[in-house]
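Most newcomers find our protein records easier to grasp once they have seen one. Each record describes a single protein and holds just a pair of labelled lines. A learned vocabulary of local backbone shapes supplies the integers on the structure line. Nothing more is needed to start thinking about how sequence determines fold. The record below serves as our worked example for the rest of this section.
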Amino acid sequence: LERGEGALLYDADGREYLDALSGGVFAVLAGYGREEIARAMYEQARRLKARASDPLTQWKSSPVDAAAPGHWDDYSRARDEMLRGTHDRAAPWVIVRADDKKVARLNVIRDLARRIEWPDKAKNLPEPDERVVFEYRPGRANRLAK
């Protein structure tokens, strides 16, 4: 191997490889993960690579992008701690799975429409998909990851 950039490695001929040991990808490749997580990680690596070479978006790249996958568990623990510490019945956290932006946005609109009252509100509004939008419940953080 000639060089590495984040989770990407390059050989002397310029061929690109995803580093299977960075950011927990090895567990996914070895069969301990789920296919959709592997797809998401490959997609993220592709987007980060494209961002770094696009003059319109390369300003968004930083050394944190390369280091972040290795801290996934730390970030997840910090998120869970923040949710536990700030969740309240009067001001609940609502989790949105945004893998598909269009589906996520439509379900957020459905959720908000059900929560907000207005004159002449229709009684038969579509329900949000509870796999996409759901209220945080302490002790059920495993629902946050697919």
